[in-house]
Amino acid sequence: MTQYANILAPGIGFILSIPALILLVAESARHGNSWHIVSCAIFGATLVISYASFTLYHIFKFHARFGRLFKIIDHCAIYLLIAGTYTPFTLVHLRGHWGWTLLGLVWGMTLVGFVFKFFFVHRFKILAPLIYLAMGWLLIFAVGPATTYIPHPALKLLLAGGLFYSFGLIFYAWKKLPFHHAIWHLFVLAGTVLHYLAVLRHLIPN
Question: Can you tell me which residues bind Zn(2+) (predicted)?
Answer without folding.
Answer: 58, 181, 185
